[in-house]
Amino acid sequence: MSGKVRLFDVESQRLRQAHGGGLLAYGAQDGSVALSPDGRLLAADQQGTLKVWNADSGELVFEQKHVVAPISFSPDSRYLAGAAEDGLRMWNTADWKSRLLGESLRTDTSQLTSLAFTPDSGRVIFSPTRFTSKLIVYNLADDTSEGELIGLDSPCVISTDGSIVAAGGSGGYVCVWDLASRKVITKFKAHSSIVLGVALSPDGKTLVTGGNNSEIILWDTKTFNKIDFLKGHHNQVWNLKFSRDGRYLASASADHSVKLWKWNSKNRRAQDTSTVNNAAAKPVVKHIGAHRNVSDDDDSAHKQAPRTYTVKPGDSIQAAIDAAAPGDHIDIAAGMHQVTEMIVVNKPLIVAGVAKKDEKGPLPTILKGADGLTYVIHVETGAGSSSEIRDLQIETNASGIQHLSGDLTLRNCRVIIRSVLDFQKVISLEAMGSEDIPTDTVTIDGCYLLAEYVGDTAERTPPDVDIILASVGSRYVEITVTGCKVINEVPNAISNGIETRSTTAHITICNNNIRSQGMGIVIPNHIGAMDIRGNTIWATYFGITATTESPDRSNIIGNHITIDDQGFQIYPAFVKDLIARNSPACISIGSTSAGVAEFFHQEFIGRGTNFWVENNVLTGNPKYGISLVDSAEPESYGPPTPNDSHNNIITGNDFTNLNAEWDIALGASTYENMVVGNVGVESVFKEAGNNDRNSISHD
């Protein structure tokens, strides 16, 4: 995230070189860094500029602007491929002359997410856009496309041994194809949500995957049964690579570590070499079923193939859903669809519209909600099911989408609400699990979500409207919001961007653009861990406010937060005095207000533990930059609320352009927090004075 590119010697594990640096060079993406197979060259995407260094001397040997990840060297080290402004381009590493791959590939490669060469350097395999369901196989000698690998939505990482191709996608699935025939060998659920790393062992016998949890899973490539797993990381596994000689497996994680595993190809066991005396991985006691390769003439396959129902403007969307079987596709044609009754998705389906490509093009698929609707779409498919809604535009004077059960992916949708009613939501997450056990995951990816301000309520106060709200006590395994534009124009300090209340989920909020007249990200009374990184946030009240006592580490990393304290309106009126006593902050950890918790009728957790707050850029004019303060309550709500936050690390944050009364504030009840290595800190407020148990350095 710092933009640094580091080259290590594997045997000694010592640092050889370090290059680059700068804000938010998103180095976790597969293909952001590449080492040529002959060991001569080190390349990286440095915030949209391709830089190549000599791996021995450290000298910069080539630089090209407007090139973004993924980048990849060919196995013979003769070429370097990357996504340029005009398409997928290849540079000859001898003279750095380049050529653009065929005319058919002249596309917006800023959406290209994965790229891999075959071992013979003869072909390159890549995903053309972010939301595609195919990979392109391109023959470099003939400069033509050989065909497509179809079957996986949003493939984000690829590995190939020249015989098969494995790819992982955003839904947690891995798909494996035979490269020669381009037919699917198998498709299976490898992780609960996104798959961030796949690697085929050099002998082709094992597929290794990593994703949203800390486990690395090993799969047999004959049966695709799970055969082992590796434990040692403490957060998401972002990347996996085998060394060319097959001696090591390398894994990179959001826990800030890279681990080297000694690879034993005979029994396919691995041992972490980066930790002394770490035992080999334990054998897995539970296997998933083998997947059969279904041939084209298999009658049973045809019977089970999903059907597609096409709905034109004027047709009933609900009728198509009612007629469909689980797993079928509902394709809603472009144009205006009037929705007079709430659409109920009560079985696992893929519901897809037509997205608008540009402002001059034809209409997209628009679902126009009639007055009086509670929600336009209601999703209740039951535990263990999986549905996807994509490429729809929803416009309504009420709330947009309500989710009650089942795994749901909402992708590339525009949801716009315009309301003068209270307690409306663009997206409402209300799943309670099965017998109070969390069972569901929700992924909201690449969406545009907007609450427009069209007037006050009947009480002449601005309504309380949230963009994404996980209701009090909702139970999810995972809530993920990535790559979205979230805008709340309602001028109310409790009208927020993304809010969860007392949820159990692991929450991932990454790479979103959030603008809110209230608070940007609000996670009070949380039970699990959270990962908030790479977001751009503008708000008038709080940028990020969060509490949790989870033993797992939570991250607030690499966000750019601006607070413009313009004075704010409050509704409901009876909490006005309470909230007015809480001053704006870019980031707030721990206690906010006991009264708000009483308003929501929930026991209140007034502390934050195990937060890592790093590399955030703070600007604007709040009272506090980063706040861990105790709350002073009005008499009507009782005595002050202690913060009690502890074991938090605040480091590497940039306060240079912050105009705050206090850059950092620590309440009297806080303890054993470390504040060190931040930039531009001019003022620190400590209610406990110099005798508290916090470690603070002003540098």
Question: Can you offer a commentary on this structure?
Answer:
- The protein folds into 2 domains: 269 residues, YVTN repeat-like/Quinoprotein amine dehydrogenase (Methylamine Dehydrogenase, Chain H, 7 Propeller), CATH 2.130.10.10; 246 residues.
- Helices cover 3% and strands 44% of the residues.
- It is built from 4 helices and 62 strands.
- Strands 27-28-31-34-37-40-43-46-49-52-55-58-60-62 form a 14-stranded parallel sheet, with helices on one face.
- It is globular.
- The protein starts with a strand and ends with a strand.
- About 8% of the residues have low confidence.
Order of strands, widest sheet: 27-28-31-34-37-40-43-46-49-52-55-58-60-62
Gross morphology: globular
Give the count of structural domains. 2
CATH class label of the largest domain: Mainly Beta
Mean of pLDDT: 82
Structural class: mainly beta
Radius of gyration: 26 Å
Assign a percent range to the helix content. under 10%
What is the beta-strand fraction? Answer: 35-45%
CATH level 4 superfamily of the largest domain: YVTN repeat-like/Quinoprotein amine dehydrogenase
CATH architecture of the largest domain: 7 Propeller
The count of β-strands is: 62
What is the overall number of helices? 4
The biggest beta sheet reads: 14 strands, parallel
**N- and C-termini, Cα separation:** 21 Å
List low-pLDDT spans. 23-27, 274-303, 571-580, 593-604
CATH third-tier fold name of the largest domain: Methylamine Dehydrogenase, Chain H
